[in-house]
Amino acid sequence: MRTTRLPSLLSSRYGPLLVIQSAANLLLAVWLYLEYTHNPFMQAYVSNAWASVWPEITIGISAVIVAAVILAFYGRRHSQSLPARLGSKSKLEDLEEPSNLARLDMCPFCETPLRPISEGRLQCRKCRRYFKSSLPKMAY
Ligand SMILES: [Zn+2]
Question: Residue ranges per domain, the chain?
């Protein structure tokens, strides 16, 4: 479910940093591969190291696969128990906050929590719009 926010992360101001980091990692991997193919000492070292660590690596990969299977199974069962399909972002937020009353505490324009000012009056923390606490549910 969190993967739906990845494009916005890539388009944010941290996007270039992520691209640069990925490029640096790729360069390091290529350099390691070239070093491995041209250096017989490193080949011997890698084969020795691999022989000593492969049981741990196998156990780790197995644990990751088991965890992924459990998560996938749980996620599918969780979504099947719900009548609505996981279509849009607002529906996802409905799942995280099941009560419709909680929606009235959110600004419908910038989806920021509202701050209660007085009896029956709320203000958005971000855009400073005022709302009545009996605000009808808006379609957007
Ligand atoms: Zn707002």
Answer: 13-81, 90-132
